[in-house]
Amino acid sequence: QVDDKNYGESYEFQELFKSNPVFKQFENLKKEHDEFETFLDAVTADLALKSDNLKALKNCSNTKLNDKSYAGVQLLMLSQYSHRINRFRDVSRNSLDNIFKNIEKENNSNALITKHIDILGKMKRRMKHIIDVSDKYAVENIFDSINLLREMSEAMEPSPAENKVKMGKCKS
Question: How many alpha carbons lie under 13 Å from residue 82 in its C-beta half-sphere?
Fold first, then answer.
């Protein structure tokens, strides 16, 4: 049984519960929960990578103030998403722990497991939405698109060199 709120890495958590007989009795529960933990880890890694890139962009000396502001807003959003992902991890693990505690007491173990799997599905959909939104509004992508459009319009209609302005870009 896990009483500590800070479970550490998902690998440690999975190792702790691998030997639990409930997983042997309900293989679909183990499969669904393992998939969820793997997806959580992938989303967490994606958000961390995006945050690192934005921090590099924000701290770059070539980045304009306006671009730094956009990067700051994006970092705030990614931070909120990371907190939500951590809450999803806590909720899923608390639910699983609750199943382990109550499986012997109650006759409706299938109902508990079905509810747990349904909640995991909802959280996966929300995480997919988080990934989609964070990709759609990624400041780096917006800067690249603006610069590409500006370069295409300059290629079609040459303008004086002093009017060429690019959005700030910093290599991460």
Answer: 15
Please spell the DSSP secondary structure of the chain, one letter per residue: ----S----HHHHHHHHHT-HHHHH-HHHHHHHHHHHHHHHHHHHHHHHHHHHHHHHHH-TTS-HHHHHHHHHHHHHHHHHHHHHHHHHHHHHHHHHHHHHHTTT-S-HHHHHHHHHHHHHHHHHHHHHHHHHHHHT-HHHHHHHHHHHHHHHHHHS---GGG---------
Task: Return the minimum-mean-pLDDT range out of 24-28, 62-66, 137-141, 156-160.
Answer: 156-160
Mean pLDDT of the chain: 78
Check whether 16 has a pLDDT greater than 80.
Answer: no
CA atoms within 13 A on the CB side of 128: 7
Measured over all CA atoms, what is the biggest interatomic distance in the chain, rounded to whole angstroms? 79
**Which residues 6+ apart lie within 8 Å of 154 measured at CB?**
164
List the structure tokens of 69.
């502001």
* Whether 61 contacts 148, CB under 8 Å: no
The identity of residue 125, as a single letter, is R
**Angle (deg, nearest 10), helices 27-59 and 109-136:** 20
